[in-house]
Amino acid sequence: MGRPRIRDDLAALEGYHSPQVDVDVRLNTNEAPGPPPAGFADAVADAARSMDWHRYPDRGAVALRSALASLHGLDGGDDPAARVFCANGSNEVLQTILLTFAGPGRTVLTFEPTYAMHGHIARISGATTIDGVRSDGFLIDADHAVALIAEHRPSVTFVCSPNNPTGIAEPTESILAILEAVKAVDGLLVVDEAYGQFAPWSAVDLLSSSDDLPLVVTRTYSKTWAMAGARLGYLLAAPWLVSELDKVVLPYHLDALKQAAGLAALEFLDDMEQRVASIVEERGRIEVNLNDLGCEVWPSGANFVLFRPPADSGLTGDAVWQGLLDRSVLVRNTASWDHLDGCLRVTVGTAEDNTVFLTALNEVLAS
Ligand SMILES: *Cc1c(COP(=O)(O)O)cnc(C)c1O
């Protein structure tokens, strides 16, 4: 039978797995716990009514990119949009970076455990991946990172900070050391700040100092902005780098309604900041309660918490995950991931959801 064969280098590749199960309390994908403010939906509906639907969208998404540059204080120069690149979710941003700077014959470095899509998209681009390993406590050891970069000369190095799924943000000094090492091998450093709003500092601050850095910072509307359904992400970088990405991405990839939605969201900054504050407060409550239940807990700078159920419960991570699911609570099962033996990751939900989760966990551990 003449079935076409997929690329040999993709034959062994596994797809992205994150079960979408119908449950009462969904705390597995780090989405925002509630919808965007009501005024946001009205603004998008107004935009939809007045839109030139028969026309292609603004290919350069200039209004949206300029507004994002201004949000981050990077709108200086003749072209205020020049330091921003937008795409359909930060996953498409990552894909565009990798299509542009990785590919066959090139190497991409990650520090495990981390966001699986970095290595996954790198391999789809045809690149070879090198796995660095995080030290105890899941921070990156800067000396280890610098040595790996000098040895393997990766075209692209990923640092996820705050890191998914461990939650920890890297200190500035580590990022600076890694950036120096990357520069020395003509590589590119990508700092994935999908959870940047929850972190104590941002690598965006480094970008404002110079347009010569081989540095990209990625962000998403999916988490804090409560817009996972819209699929919108962006990166901040020097103008020369954004121009290269513009050559690679498909023309008109960012539809007009999404551009309008991204702009409309920026009118609700205060609202977003309040949401971040209440998620941080709830995160603290979850951490304290997990500790009280005897779990091992890693301090989080994001909107989720990684924990390992107590060994003396006699339950594996899989069993605790199943026990929660039996009580209609879905968390992310990371128990069989490398370096995360027996761990689970819970997204911070509404206060009510979090209480249901903690009560269910208490029951499971006592069973
Ligand atoms: C959720 C997540 C993303 C993906 O974001 P989208 O904008 O929804 O594609 C990227 N990076 C990390 C680390 C994430 O956790």
Overall pLDDT confidence: 95
CATH superfamily label of the largest domain: Type I PLP-dependent aspartate aminotransferase-like (Major domain)
Please give the share of residues in helix: 25-40%
The gross shape turns out to be: globular
User: How many β-strand stretches?
Assistant: 12
**Uncertain stretches:** none
CATH topology of the largest domain: Aspartate Aminotransferase, domain 2
- Write down the CATH class of the largest domain: Alpha Beta
- Report the major sheet: 7 strands, mixed
How many helix segments? 12
Distance between the termini: 53 Å
Query: Percent of residues in beta strands?
Result: 5-15%
Could you please describe the fold and organization of this structure?
The chain has 2 domains: about 10-35 and about 270-365, Aspartate Aminotransferase, domain 1; about 45-270, 3-Layer(aba) Sandwich (Aspartate Aminotransferase, domain 2), CATH 3.40.640. It has helices spanning about 40-50, 60-70, 90-100, 115-125, 140-150, 170-185, 205, 240-250, 255-265, 270-290, 315-325, 350-365, and strands at about 25, 85, 105-110, 130-135, 155-160, 190, 215-220, 235, 295, 305-310, 330-335, 345. The chain has 12 helices and 12 strands. Strands 2-8-7-6-5-3-4 form a 7-stranded mixed sheet, sandwiched between helices. Strands 1-11-12-10-9 form a 5-stranded mixed sheet. With about 375 residues, the chain is an alpha/beta fold. Strand 3, helix 4 and strand 4 form a beta-alpha-beta unit. The structure holds pyridoxal-5'-phosphate. Pyridoxal-5'-phosphate (PLP) binds near residues 91 and 220.
